[in-house]
Design a protein that fits this description.
Layout (H helix, E strand, L loop, with lengths): L2 H11 L5 H4 L18 E12 L2 E9 L11 E2 L2 E3 L7 H13 L7 E5 L3 E3 L4 E9 L13 E8 H5 L6 E6 L5 E10 L2 E4 H13 L4
């Protein structure tokens, strides 16, 4: 286990920065929607780290545009809604990661979990987990849901030029969200719940 992974694992077992870290990349409107209601649906996602070119990367996906999917076209971690047979939210995150990008569940060494994030627009309470691989994965994407995989260096996400800016996000013909914090990832805008989860993860790797 590398020093980077060992330190991250230790921090994941300690009290998490939680809302303080999440709010750094949260839209202003989200501040009053942090707690999940009792009827929220459950979902699990996995932040999978791996070594490439002598630095650590994280697996992200660009979802296929889909008018029926609130999160279609967005950048996110692999993951999805819990199924009754999963048993635990960790199992959901591992299963969905294998289904969406082809990384086998048994290959991911789980380090711990981040703080939950509630998504009001889809009424999902998301449980993010962190794991790592000792190797660069080979992907087998679920083409119905995933457009492509993005392998993003942690160093890029920690670069001031990639974050702490704001932009306007068009949601539909009638709605545009204003002044939304985002990360720039391969000329794409990574925002919302995934940006909030990343903010906490990066804080645990020494950011902030």
């Amino acid at each position: 286990m590398s020093d980077f992974i060992h330190k991250l694992q230790q921090k994941l077992q300690a009290p998490l920065p939680g809302r303080t870290a999440q709010l750094k990349m949260a839209p202003t409107s989200r501040r009053k929607y942090m707690a999940a209601p009792a009827n929220a649906r459950q979902a699990g996602v996995m932040a999978t780290l791996f070594p490439k070119n002598k630095e650590w990367h994280v697996v992200l996906i660009e979802r296929n545009p889909n008018d029926r999917d609130t999160h279609g076209g967005q950048i996110s971690f692999p993951g999805g809604k819990a199924e009754p047979h999963d048993g635990t939210m960790l199992k959901t995150a591992l299963r969905e990661t294998e289904e969406e990008v082809g990384i086998l569940q048994k290959e991911i060494k789980v380090l711990g979990k981040l703080s939950e994030v509630y998504i009001p627009v889809s009424n999902f309470n998301v449980y993010p987990f962190v794991g790592y691989l000792d190797f660069q994965p080979i992907y087998n994407i679920q083409e119905a849901e995933v457009y492509r995989v993005l392998e993003v260096p942690i160093s890029h996400l920690k670069n001031e030029a990639a974050k702490q800016r704001t932009t306007d996000i068009p949601i539909n013909k009638l709605l545009t969200l204003k002044n939304i914090p985002f990360y720039e990832v391969e000329n794409k805008t990574l925002w919302g719940a995934t940006a909030m989860m990343l903010s906490e993860l990066l804080e645990l790797t020494g950011d902030g």
